[in-house]
């Protein structure tokens, strides 16, 4: 039996690049995910029905990595955000949120009793939904997919 020795120039560099690719890919995606989350937060602030105020200022971007899992997005701790996004009461049922059926949102058809601090008991018809977070997410979907693909191509180049 005979032995053949083949040397391919640049093979070591190629193998080195392949072994480092997963770590580089995760780092690249992590950076891109944070940039996209920040862009999403800006769009949501622009969509926010309040020109100024705590709701607009409460929208923040986040990006977390746990092992190979990357989670990025936006959030708000403002207690009124869900009421603005999804609407309330019967007027809310006139113009619902695009995700009402998926979220299981059911709107009352009659006015409801609320106790407003410093004012007292009132009956309200609610407010229509004024989605500001969901439309921005839908607008960003294609961009996020493109950025993910670009990150993969960049690392594997």
N-to-C SSE string, H for helix and E for strand: HHEEHHHEEH
Number of strands: 4
Number of helices: 6
Assembly state: single chain
Q: Give the helix proportion (percent range).
A: 40-55%
**Which spans of ≥5 residues are poorly predicted at pLDDT below 50?**
none
Query: Could you report the average pLDDT, rounded to the nearest whole number?
Result: 81
Radius of gyration, in angstroms, nearest whole number: 25 Å
Strand order of the largest sheet: 1-2
Primary descriptors:
two-stranded antiparallel ribbon, elongated, 15% strand, 157 residues, alpha+beta
Question: How would you characterize the overall build of this protein?
Answer:
With 157 residues, the chain is an alpha+beta fold. The chain is built from six helices and four strands, in the order H-H-E-E-H-H-H-E-E-H. It has helices at 11-47, 54-58, 81-86, 89-94, 100-103, 134-156; strands spanning 60-66, 69-75, 112-116, 120-124. A two-stranded antiparallel sheet has the order 1-2. Strand 1 and strand 2 (69-75) form a beta hairpin. The two termini are 39 Å apart. The model has no long low-confidence stretch (mean pLDDT 81).
């Amino acid at each position: 039996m005979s032995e053949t020795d083949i040397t391919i120039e640049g093979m070591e560099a190629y193998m080195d690049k392949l072994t480092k690719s997963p770590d580089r890919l995760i780092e690249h995606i992590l950076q891109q995910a944070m940039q996209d989350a920040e862009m999403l937060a800006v769009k949501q602030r622009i969509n926010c029905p309040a020109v100024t105020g705590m709701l607009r200022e409460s929208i923040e971007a986040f990006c977390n990595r746990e092992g190979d899992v990357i989670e990025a997005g936006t959030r708000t701790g403002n207690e009124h955000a869900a009421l603005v996004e999804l609407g309330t009461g019967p007027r809310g049922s006139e113009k619902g949120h695009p995700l009402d059926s998926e979220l299981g949102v059911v709107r009352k058809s009659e006015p409801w009793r609320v106790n407003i601090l410093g004012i007292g008991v009132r009956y309200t018809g609610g407010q229509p939904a004024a989605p500001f977070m969901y439309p921005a997410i839908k607008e960003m979907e294609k961009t996020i997919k493109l950025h993910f693909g670009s990150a993969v191509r960049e690392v594997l180049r």
